[in-house]
Amino acid sequence: MALKVGLIVGREWSFPPAFIEEVNRRNEGVTAEFVQLGAPRMDDPSEYAVIIDRISHEVPFYRTYLKQAVIQGCTVVNNPFMWTADDKFFGAALATRLGIAHPKTIVLPNKEYIPGIVHDESLRNLKYPLDWEAIVEYIGLPCILKDAHGGGWKDVYVCRTMRELIDNYDQSGLLTMIVQEFIHWDHFIRCICLGQDEILPIKYDPRERKYHVEHAHMGEELGRRVVDDSRKLVRALGYDMNSMEWAVRDGVPYAIDFMNPAPDMDIYSLTPHYFDWVVKHMADMAIDLAKNPRPQVRELKWEDLFAGSRHSAEMVGGAAVLGSGSLPPVAAPAAPSVAGSGSASSARPAADPGDAPDAIVRAEAEEGHA
Ligand SMILES: Nc1ncnc2c1ncn2[C@@H]1O[C@H](COP(=O)(O)OP(=O)(O)O)[C@@H](O)[C@H]1O
Ligand SMILES: [Mg+2]
Predict the structure, then answer these.
(1) Ligand 2: distance of its center to the CA of 152 in Å?
(2) CA within 20 to 30 Å of 213's CA: 81, 103, 193, 326, which one?
């Protein structure tokens, strides 16, 4: 019986039929089709050897199902466990640990929290107020403020002054934001990375948000470094389908945005030239993974990355550093608390809504996760 590759997609129109046709056309004992889901059971075997997931960042039901599919031996591209764990601050730390140039980055506590979080009771682990002077001194100006979980260029702000930084932060609501050094680049590259091995560096203009077909856009040395750094990062992340952005300043490629597990594969933005490359290599990868399954649950090889000493990490401006001692006591609420399970007569503070749905998850532009 033929091995099956399933495709889960949103409204993108050009990549899905081209991919399905390409896999089926090869006649390699592997067929491709759109996945059809009703209400899966916990022990359902996976019909698919491989599933290509292009949209679970916007349809959480798919992610929930895909984790079960991994347990049943399906190879999911991309690994739903890693995708669930990634964020831009983690990415900054990972790239830095790998010795890859990355703009200086700080993560900020949220401006706001979900209802039920009482600031002076629930947030005892947070220092307040933030030391904005130290943050700006470390990062420099202008700086970038962006959503740690963002995509599609949403909630990305260039801040020229500390006032602008604080004003934008004050508007960030429930998002967890990072502050980042602004890289004044003279060259911008976006790499399409497939199968943790194939790296296609393309000249990209972020102002126009456009790829340019220009084969000699990089010198040999820069080209090699961009490809090597992309491969190193993509292997650490374990993403089989990804795009990575590099901003080059003084000949050094800085990793800007490299966790795009549902990269743009539209024929108009990629251009037909790179679109054909993507369809061909996606088909190669899917067929290969169907025939040579990979035990995905053992894939997150992070212990190699995190072997460094806890004390070697540079402590920065106080912003990322927790206080060294014990937690401050909770002030007993003067009045019955507003939320949770604390009884009105007890001095126990209200329970935090730890099991509340993640209010931070927000819709991202479907085609724009890259
Ligand atoms: N540190 C930075 N220095 C210079 N430009 C940046 C920096 N971070 C982001 N940008 C610009 O903003 C764009 C969007 O930011 P990015 O991190 O890619 O967010 P998203 O994940 O929403 O696409 C990038 O393509 C780049 O042009
Ligand atoms: Mg981007």
Answers:
(1) 6
(2) 103
